[in-house]
Amino acid sequence: MISKKQFYEWAFIAIIGASFLMWLVGIFKDGSISQQFNVFFLSCGDFFADTFNVMGYSSQRDVYHNMMYTGLGEKAYPPLTYVGTYLLSRLVGMDKYWAMNDFRLMYMEPKLMIILMIFMAVTAVMVYEVIRSCKTGSKAVKICTAAAVLVSAPMLYSFERGNTIILTMFFTMLFLFYYDSENKIMKEIALISLAVAVALKMTPAVLGILLLYKKQWKEAARAVLYGIVIGIGPFLFFEGGLENIPQMFSNMQANLASYTSDDGCTLMASVLSFTKTAGEGLRMVVKVLTYVVSVAFLVLAPMFEKRWEQIMAVSMVLIILPSHSGYYCILYLIPAMIAFLNDEKHKKTDLIVLVALLFIMMTVQSGVGTLVANYHTAILLICAFLLVRGVVQAKRCLVDGLTTKQN
């Protein structure tokens, strides 16, 4: 029973569903002082800042040189996102926010919030549909899995942040499930989706290595072409046009330099969740370990037997490698999680991955979760699991190759 697909599916649905219900009960039981609001950043103390702040930066159409509110290090993303937030800024009288040099009070703008609520609803439906369509199994399993993901902790957190990570995850999922499709239209949509994801966040570019694993050279070339058009074209919308490209990379360097990997989904953050403090020696060890683990995942990925193992290994690289990897980046694991739940037969050791995914997705806030059953523990568990299984399968591939050669 424990190896059957249905056990993993319904265990995930039941536990995440129960966690969400407990979260709701806690919210209404304790009201505005409920610790359950801690599922959101600063307990909603910085509401929707990832949208409002970026609206402020982009509203003058000179985003890459804009020093308002924060330094240039926070203006380090590709221009596609900034085009969208510029259009949203058209709904608000920006003069008073420019004068304050602060954009966090934009939630008091009803016209803006109505449009944002519509966008959020549409985004939720898009995510629901892509998960439902990529999930295998009965209709009930598909619906319940998609619903469980929507009410999970990282999804709720990302909605509260107003971060484009949700859209980015949507497009990475389309790519990961259809880049090797026999349907030519869906394959092309997958390649375009990768380009859009990269144009939103840059880091999903690492997923393109999956095309190289399968020697899909033509598809990789088309993905690069789509990326150039979708990623570079929006620069022309801003003052300075293509001259903003080197400035963007300069801002990216400033962004990485300003984050020390102590927060979010990095291995350093996971270590600090247990040790609380770390000296320079430990920091250097963890930094080197992060590079080693990331390279190991990319080398071992083609040798994994299961599709979900390969997707999870490559996805972990774009989660743990950047020094600026916020909690919302954990959403990049959702496509791998769906592939994991789609697997028809599991090994007993796969329970480790199930437990880790539950730690990540559970909504209810508790003392035990804060200390142990959290996403930091989950990241360490998944990394250790993939490394061990990858080495075992690589050894098996080597032995099989030598045996075939001798015969």
Q: How far do the termini sit from each other?
A: 39 Å
Mean pLDDT: 93
Helical content band: 55-70%
Work out the radius of gyration: 22 Å
How does the major sheet shape up?
none
Structural features, described:
- The protein is mainly α and 407 residues long.
- The mean pLDDT is 93.
- Helices cover 66% and strands 0% of the residues.
- The protein is globular.
- Helix 2 crosses helix 3.
- The protein has 19 helices and no strands.
What's the helix and strand layout?
Layout (H helix, E strand, L loop, with lengths): L4 H26 L18 H10 L20 H11 L5 H6 L9 H25 L4 H12 L2 H9 L3 H14 L5 H18 L7 H5 L3 H16 L11 H15 L8 H9 L4 H21 L6 H14 L13 H9 L8 H11 L5 H5 L3 H32 L1
Helix pairs in contact: 1-6, 1-17, 2-3, 5-6, 5-8, 8-9, 9-11, 13-19, 14-15, 14-19, 15-16, 17-19
Task: Please summarize what this structure is.
The chain has 407 residues and is mostly helical.
